Amino acid sequence: MPQMYPMNWISLYIYFIIILYLINILLYFNKTNMELKKFKLNFKLKKLNWKW
């Protein structure tokens, strides 16, 4: 942003939405990662139980 004049409300609003969207995506991926790890762990435990 080369111009130094204050941003108008529309651009500010757009930036805000984009930032929120990115945060949501990051949180969602983090959550799915956790779910996958849990699933894998459960799977391993079940395999162990099955062997015994």
From TrEMBL:
- Membrane-spanning residues: 12-30
One GO cellular component assignment for this chain's record is:
mitochondrial membrane
InterPro entries per the record? ATP8_metazoa (IPR001421)
* Any single biological process term in GO: proton motive force-driven ATP synthesis
Please provide, alphabetically and separated by semicolons, the GO molecular function terms listed in this UniProt record: proton transmembrane transporter activity
Question: Which branch of life, at top level?
Answer: Eukaryota
List the subcellular locations: Mitochondrion membrane
What membrane topology does this protein have? Single-pass membrane protein
User: Record keywords: Chloroplast included?
Assistant: no
Recite the UniProt keywords alphabetically: CF(0), Hydrogen ion transport, Ion transport, Membrane, Mitochondrion, Transmembrane, Transmembrane helix, Transport
What is its quaternary makeup?
F-type ATPases have 2 components, CF(1) - the catalytic core - and CF(0) - the membrane proton channel.
Q: Which family does it belong to?
A: Belongs to the ATPase protein 8 family.
The protein's name: ATP synthase complex subunit 8
